Structure formats: structure tokens, C-alpha cells
Amino acid sequence: MITLEDVTCRYGAHDRGEDDGDAIDDSVLAVDDVTLSVPDGEFLVVAGANGSGKTTLVRTFNGLVRPDSGTVSVNGTPVSEDLVAARAAVGMTFQDPRDQLVSATVGGDVAFGPENLGLPREEIDRRVEAALDAVDMAGRGDDRITTLSGGERQRVAIAGALAMEPDHLVCDEPFTGLDEPARESVLTRLRERHAGGTGVVVVTHDLRDVVGFADRVVGLDDGRIVVDGPPSEAVPTLSDIGVRVPAGFDAAGDDHAGRSDEP
Amino acid sequence: MTLEYVPGDSLAHRLDPRTKLLVQIGFAAAAYAHTTPRGLAVLTLLAGGSLWAADGDPVDLWGYRFALPVLLAAPLVAGATLGTPWFRVARAETAALASYRVLLLLVVAAAYVRSTPVRDSRAAIHHTVPGRIGAFLGVGVALVFRFLPLLRRDLLAAREAVHVRGGDRLPVHERMRLIAVAGTNRAFGRADRLGTALAARCFAWNPTLPRLAFRRADYPVLALGAGLLATAVATTV
């Protein structure tokens, strides 16, 4: 379980003092007093327009961003007290997988996280094999990262997170720049992980791919949660905050609207 | 083309990274001890052999193209004088041999980089240098190997971004300024993103490193490295 209590995050200078003694705050408020719980095994969608604070919010889950105020806990332990435990429990893929892949080969990259956990070599090999299998890239451990397509890189990034065997997998805009087959492939992997018991958090400004599989949707606007509920309740309000929603979404309860190209 | 690890099953790929490090050290020492054309000819064969053993070819050296003009210019700069005789051949010859030695070292380094994953290099250093110093050096080497290819790609992207909007028609110094500024900005951004990526995946000073073990093929190559080092020491002392 990931728990946020009264979390606020700011970027930039804080309280720059003026000569007359008054202080002004010229920082940017990215996350504004957010309280949120993400139970194990939940498929959560965090939706919002660009700059709404989605990425900052989810980066507090594993301590990549430290809140200016409030607390974030993973499985009952404050993230600030045990960063390694938080990062092992909350796997994350970045918006651009090129920012995430740190090795020259697929196998080397997927093994990177488990190696850092200090696991025995046999366990690392098992996890790498299982993670590559989970993203349909079994037997491609020796492939060079630079030769992969965008969809394959996204899948390797997911494999790298899965190899940590996290309780939650957080994917930041996982479909950006992918063509339809690649989107479908990544979505299938996420659904499979969710079906296998892993909690999945998808950060997106476009609900069309994922709303049919979400247990819950959280809408962010200017760093604040403006809606939090099942898709049938949340989706109708999201287009007002710049989120692309499926055409013909049935607010009465059809949570499985198909993807549409209509805005 | 970027000089980086290429998976394979060549002789060099199968060698223990510590063996390859010893050969590099021995080769570097020999290159600076044996400065005659005959000595350098022998070392040329060895350097070519090391690249061949790593399944490489001369095209791999294209990754060094930015260093080549400096190596070529060095003899000209060394030989030039401000007055008569305007150019001293002996000085240029000495500098040319020195440049050639550096080129040979780059060839051997290319064979190493091509055939050795980053984590194997880290493990080799960690195993060879005991304690925290070894861990620190291993991390340093790993970060350099991880960061440089990314940085190089960013610089190429910056150059392409300048070119696609007609920047290739600007004077050279203006293009250099644009790419340097963009490249520096990207380098800082890249360092941030790499740091975040490492943190997200629990970067550790003491991770599980690959098991290293000398095999039968390592021993003759170890002997070669030790022999090169010994001849260098014998020549110098």
C-alpha cells in the first residue's frame, strides 16, 4: 500500500527575501496538499493535462521527489526512512525509456536493479529471464539497446522495473510515441501484470487506452486532486481539465469503452 | 557510430576482464618503452590482433575521429619553428611516433570497450583493487562508460537540430558555439536524468557483480600482458 498524507511539492526558489523584510515565494507549486492511498493490486490511472503535477506526484511514491511537506509511506514505512525498500516495492518506468536504460544490452539493463539489491546471481538470472518473458522478449538478452524500436525499449524499461519484483508498477505516459501495435503490446503486458497481482499505476493525459482496465481514476489539475473514483464517476469530469477521454464513454457504468480516435 | 560494448562470442569476449586490463597496461607500458619504428611495428601487429580478437575492424576506429585531427596536427605543431629553419623534421618525427603510440593505445582500448560489458569492467576493478577504493574506482568507471555514449548521442542530436534548420550554412565558429551551448545544457540535463534512473533502480556501491574466473584461454594472454610489462620495465630500468 502506498499512502500519501498532505503531500506538497514545489520547484524552484523558496521564500526569496526582499530588502524591505517581506518575503515572496516565486516557486512553482507542483503538488498541492495531496492525500491519497493506493492499495496493493489496484489498477490506478493518474490523469491530468501537461504540467498538472502527475509525474511529480508519482515520483514521491519511491522517493525520487521528496515532498516539501507531508509524508509518503510504502507498506507502512515512510519512504524517507528506507529508500531502497520503497524503490524495490514501487517499480517505475519513465516517460522516455531512453532516460531509464543504463546498459548497452537488454539483459544487462534488466539485471541492473536486482544486482543493486545484492541478490545472488542465480536469483538475478531467474528474475531477468522471468521479466523478459513477461514482456515477450525472452531470448533477447544480448540485443543491443540501440537497435530496439520505441515499443521494444518501453517493454525493456518495464522488464527492468518488473525484475525488482515490485508490489506496484508505475508507468509514466507509457504509450507516448508508440504506434498502435506497440501500444497494444505494452497495454497487454500491463494487464497481465495486473492480473498476476501487481498493482499498476498509469500516468497519462489520454485515457483512451487504459480506462477500460482501470479500477480507479484520479484526476489532477494544478497539483490538486479534483476527482477520485471509479471510471464511471471520474471520466465524465476529466475532459474539463484537459484529459482526452474515450468518445462515447458511458457515465452510467460502462467502464470498458473502446479506444477511439475522436478527441 | 559509437564506440561501446557489442555482444559477441569472440576470443576477447570470452576472456576475463582482468586479463584484458593487464594486456592494456602492459601494452601501454611497452608503447612508451619501445619507441623505435621497429618496436612500434611489433606493437602495431599486437594492436591489430587485439581488435581482430574482439571481432572488430578498422571501422570501429571511426569513433575516435574527433581525436585523429589532434594526433595528426601534433607533429606539424611540434616541428614548426618561428624562425629559420621554420620546420624541424627530427622534432616532428618524435611527435609523430608519439601520436602513433597514442593511436595504437586507442586501438587496444577499442578492442577492450567492444568486448567488455560495463559491469564486467566494474567487477574487474572491484576485484583487483580491494576495499572502498576499488568500489569507488569501479563505480567511477561504470558511470563514465554509461554516461559518455549518452552524452555523445546528445551532442549528435544537438548538431542535427542545428543542421535541420539551416544551421549548416552558418560559419564554423558559430556552429561550434551553438552545439557547445546546447551540448552543455544537454549534458547537465542528461546527468540529472541518469542520476534519477540510477536512483530509481536502487543504485548501490556494492551490488552483485558478475562472477569472474580465469579460463584456459586467459593464461597465454595473461603471459602476453605480463611479458609486455616486463620488457617495458627491463627497457626503462
TrEMBL record, chain A:
Membrane topology label: Peripheral membrane protein
GO function terms (MF aspect): ATP binding; ATP hydrolysis activity; ATPase-coupled transmembrane transporter activity
Domain of life: Archaea
Keywords: ATP-binding, Membrane, Nucleotide-binding, Transport
Subcellular location: Cell membrane
Pfam families in alphabetical order: ABC_tran (PF00005)
CDD domains named among the record's database cross-references: ABC_cobalt_CbiO_domain1
A GO cellular component annotation in the UniProt record: ATP-binding cassette (ABC) transporter complex
The ABC transporter domain, residue ranges: 2-247
Gene3D superfamilies, sorted: P-loop containing nucleotide triphosphate hydrolases
InterPro entries: AAA+_ATPase, ABC_transporter-like_ATP-bd, ABC_transporter-like_CS, ABC_transpr_CbiO/EcfA_su, ECF_ABC_transporter_ATP-bd, P-loop_NTPase
Family: Belongs to the ABC transporter superfamily.
Protein purpose: Probably part of an ABC transporter complex. Responsible for energy coupling to the transport system.
Protein name stated in the entry: Biotin transport system ATP-binding protein
Organism: Halorubrum aquaticum
Lineage of origin: Archaea, Methanobacteriati, Methanobacteriota, Stenosarchaea group, Halobacteria
TrEMBL record, chain B:
Keywords (A to Z) from UniProt: Membrane, Transmembrane, Transmembrane helix
Membrane-topology descriptor: Multi-pass membrane protein
A GO CC term attached to the entry: plasma membrane
Keyword Metal-binding included in the entry's annotation: no
Primary localization: membrane
TM stretches of this protein: 66-87, 94-113, 133-151
UniProt subcellular location: Membrane
Name by which UniProt lists this protein: Biotin transport system permease protein
Lineage, broadest ranks: Archaea, Methanobacteriati, Methanobacteriota, Stenosarchaea group, Halobacteria
